[in-house]
Amino acid sequence: MAGDGGGTARSFAIILIVHLAVLALWQVLVDAFHVPKFILPSPLATVQTLGTASYAWSANTLVTAVEILGGFALGAVVGVALAVIFSWAPLLSLLLLPLFVTLNMIPKVALGPLFIVWFSYGIVPNILIAFSICFFPILLTTARGLREVEPDLLDLVKSLRGSRWTLFRKIQLPGSLPYVFSGMKVGAILAVAGAIVGEFIASERGLGYLMIQVQSALDTPAMVMAVVLLTLLGVALYGLVLCLERMFVVGGARL
């Protein structure tokens, strides 16, 4: 266990060093070539925009974080639940899964105006857009994991007269967890995109809304700062999924 912890610490240190090196190179190149701030601001100029009180960074970041986390959580719950239902009812899976595939092909940007008509402005439409983007990969990967059960294990449970619930709890669920978390990691990335799509279409708060506002003033450092904060939110959510994977999956994915 100690060796595993040391390897994790080394991996984290390498990742941190690489990111810091990229920031340092960015700063050096911008200063060396005297790149105008409105084209590409330096990291220092970008961070300085956090002192602009009129941008309400904390409030807008919190709104976007709620949209991302809400859409992701809803997508994970609905995706896993539907996958379990489909595994227990193959006929229902045959009827509905192709429909979900078709619905997933609809461009989510096109759904944005409809969500606004149906649910008005606010956080709820953006959560639903994030959900609509991130839930399908979770559904597909979980359904695949529940299907891929070794025949020998199935025969063993049947020979012991195990119930469907026993089969699910002892065999299917543990075996499908790597697939579940794989889908959740993809969903975490897509949830960020979904929330921003909603804020770009119509919103009164959030980092996407702020980017639209500062664009008209050519405040590029503020736009870059918004992108950085969005990235940090996505990394935080992805890291949370990784932590959960390490907790529940034996020999889970490593950083």
Automatic annotation (TrEMBL):
| Recorded superkingdom | Bacteria
Q: Where in the cell is it found?
A: Cell membrane
Q: Does Membrane show up as a keyword for this record?
A: yes
What GO biological process term is on the record, naming one?
Answer: transmembrane transport
Q: Which Pfam families match?
A: BPD_transp_1
Provide the alphabetized UniProt keywords: Cell membrane, Membrane, Transmembrane, Transmembrane helix, Transport
Membrane topology field:
Multi-pass membrane protein
Q: Where is the ABC transmembrane type-1 domain?
A: 61-242
Which residue ranges does UniProt annotate as crossing the membrane?
12-35, 55-74, 81-103, 115-140, 179-202, 222-244
**GO cellular component terms listed in the entry, alphabetical order:** plasma membrane
Is DNA-binding a UniProt keyword of this protein? no
Gene3D superfamilies listed in its UniProt record:
MetI-like
Matches recorded under PROSITE patterns? ABC_TM1
- Similarity comment: family membership: Belongs to the binding-protein-dependent transport system permease family.
Protein name per its UniProtKB record: Nitrate ABC transporter permease
